[in-house]
């Protein structure tokens, strides 16, 4: 692959020590061979010297001076570029602050992790309006995914950690918005999902966790996840080679094969193919599951696997009648993977407030990635523009609408 043309080039020439031939004639240059090698210089820091000239009138002694440029952190030393690097390193590349502190030390800079933490907190506050606007953009869609994953949070005054949760919300996999919003909460109580969704009354794809049940009683339509149903049978088959589980997996595999074929189709075509082919497979699977459930022992592992699907069958099958609904919740679970990687490195959140700041930053980093942006370039540009950007036009800075400023 050729190296990107956007990268700066440093030309190094290699010529013979002598251009005289052994016969005594002068050699003539007839061409050249060019090869390119990729170099990298880690930890390159530069200092911006902001010089504000003072101008005075010799007659009336009026003094004028250009105002101090607006910054995310007033009177602080970090530029938007350094702040973006710290944020992306921690929440995009999962590098804890103590490791970043050591990286800066190798470059000759003493920046304590406490200072880095303060920078992150201040950026989180400034970026929160973008996340609020992103939440509103997500809630404008009628099909949403939701999931939650545990994270450790330091208990105030106890010196120990407790289990908190990072709730994840994103538009349906077939919606025209690529975005994700993480919501940090101190528990897994369903009230957190209800507070986030507010008056939203669309179709919610999630697992069978009871915390979502109150939403369905309030007008939200439940959508089941076929991947969770399949997982019950997969675990049984992997453990004891259950023949019943194998047959269930074969039927579910046929449904997924049809989904692979309709992924790129237009909604009307997707719906037609699902009705024509997937409906028949699903009806056969339901009839077979009902027959098997009558034959297996109550309380057995295979009975529990069958009950999981049969109890949620209506929710699992709603995707057949709506081309905007995916077959499973894997799209949302994929957005949780960066969190799983991150918590293995930064281990815990220092407080509820710190967790909420982290969730805001992670929402923008992951949404930038989903839209094909370099999260560093995105955050640097946003942090430069945000101090003077009109609140009424905050949507312009959202990842799915962002365009780099002319200076970039």
Automatic annotation (TrEMBL):
Residues 19-61 form the Transposase IS66 zinc-finger binding domain. InterPro entries: IS66_C, Transposase-related, Transposase_IS66_central, Znf_dom_IS66. Residues 75-356 form the Transposase IS66 central domain. Residues 363-400 form the Transposase IS66 C-terminal domain. NCBIfam families: transpos_IS66. This is IS66 family transposase ISPpu19. The lineage of its organism: Bacteria, Pseudomonadati, Pseudomonadota, Betaproteobacteria, Burkholderiales.
């Amino acid at each position: 692959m050729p190296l990107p043309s956007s990268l700066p080039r440093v030309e190094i020439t290699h010529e013979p020590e002598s251009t005289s031939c052994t016969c005594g004639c002068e050699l003539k240059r007839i061409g050249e061979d060019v090869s390119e090698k990729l170099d990298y210089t880690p930890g390159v820091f530069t200092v911006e010297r902001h010089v504000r000239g003072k101008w005075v009138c010799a007659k009336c002694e009026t003094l004028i001076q250009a105002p101090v440029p607006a910054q995310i952190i007033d009177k602080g030393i970090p530029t938007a570029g350094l702040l973006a690097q710290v944020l992306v390193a921690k929440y995009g590349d999962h590098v804890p602050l103590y490791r970043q502190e050591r990286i800066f030390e190798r470059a000759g800079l003493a920046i304590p992790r406490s200072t880095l933490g303060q920078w992150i907190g201040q950026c989180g506050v400034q970026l929160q309006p973008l996340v609020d606007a992103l939440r509103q953009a997500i809630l404008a869609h009628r099909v949403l995914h939701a999931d939650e994953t545990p994270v450790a949070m330091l208990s105030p005054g106890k010196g120990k950690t407790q289990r908190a949760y990072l709730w994840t919300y994103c538009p349906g996999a077939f919606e025209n918005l690529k975005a994700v919003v993480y919501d940090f909460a101190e528990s897994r109580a369903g009230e957190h999902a209800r507070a986030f969704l507010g008056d939203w009354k669309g179709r919610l794809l999630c697992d069978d966790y009871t915390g979502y049940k109150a939403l369905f009683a309030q007008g939200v339509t439940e959508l089941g996840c076929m991947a969770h149903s399949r997982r019950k049978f997969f675990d049984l088959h992997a453990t004891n080679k259950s023949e019943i589980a194998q047959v269930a997996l074969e039927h579910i595999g046929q449904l997924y094969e049809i989904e692979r074929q309709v992924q790129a189709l237009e909604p009307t075509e997707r719906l037609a193919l699902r009705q024509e082919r997937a409906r028949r497979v699903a009806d056969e699977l339901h009839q077979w599951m009902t027959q098997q459930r009558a034959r297996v022992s109550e309380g057995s592992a295979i009975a529990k696997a069958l009950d999981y699907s049969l109890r949620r069958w209506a929710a699992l099958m709603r995707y057949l009648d709506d081309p905007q609904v995916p077959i499973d919740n894997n799209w949302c679970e994929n957005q949780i993977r960066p969190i799983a990687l991150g918590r293995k490195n930064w281990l815990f959140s220092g407080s509820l407030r710190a967790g909420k700041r982290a969730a805001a930053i992670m929402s923008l980093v992951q949404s930038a990635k989903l839209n094909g942006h370099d999260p560093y370039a995105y955050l640097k540009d946003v942090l430069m523009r945000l101090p003077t950007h009109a609140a009424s036009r905050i949507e312009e800075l959202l990842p799915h609408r962002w365009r780099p400023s002319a200076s970039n």
